[in-house]
Design brief:
- It contains 1 helix and 11 strands; from the N terminus they run E-E-E-E-E-E-E-E-H-E-E-E.
- It is mainly beta.
- Strands 4, 6, 7, 8 and 10 form a 5-stranded antiparallel β-sheet that branches. It has a 4-stranded antiparallel β-sheet with strand order 3-11-5-9, with no helix packed on it. A two-stranded antiparallel ribbon has the order 1-2.
- The longest helix is centred in the last third of the chain and has 5 residues.
Length: about 140
């Protein structure tokens, strides 16, 4: 059995994990920009994502891109979307699709990879605020 060290403990690979990244404060309107860059605290084989906001975008969808080491993990036409007037990406009318390169890499974000969260579109009358991204996956070595 292989293991991954996390928070001072050895955990067997395959343990489910969430990494929730607050990407903005709860009141400042989002802008089109790279709003957060982190380095992965452990290796994670992704299963899914979820984006949520405290203030819903109004007038247009909120569109988010996730990049690993400067390369989008999504196809060019299908990013993570929070629909106009809603608070989460769950049930979005435009579901995301992983890129062929990310699929070929085994859906993996390696320990210490650079992960960038970029907002590529905001609501037109209310931008949206309080963005959080939940990465759902499995620990890997």
């Amino acid at each position: 059995m292989t293991t991954t060290r996390l928070a001072g403990r050895q955990l067997p690979d395959g343990v489910g994990s969430f990494l929730i990244q607050a990407s903005s404060d709860d009141t400042t309107s989002l802008t089109v920009a790279t709003i957060r860059t982190i380095h992965a605290p452990y290796s994670l084989r992704l299963v899914s994502f979820r984006a949520s906001v405290v203030v819903a975008p109004v007038g247009a969808d909120l569109v988010i891109d996730i990049k690993v080491n400067n390369t989008s993990i999504f196809t060019s036409f299908s990013k993570l979307v929070i629909d106009d007037g809603t608070y989460t990406s769950t049930g979005s009318s435009l579901p995301y699709a992983f890129s062929a390169a990310f699929i070929a890499a085994g859906y993996k974000i390696a320990d210490d990879d650079k992960v960038q969260i970029e907002v590529t579109q905001i609501g037109s009358s209310v931008a949206g605020a309080g963005l959080q991204i939940a990465f759902k996956g499995w620990l890997t070595s």
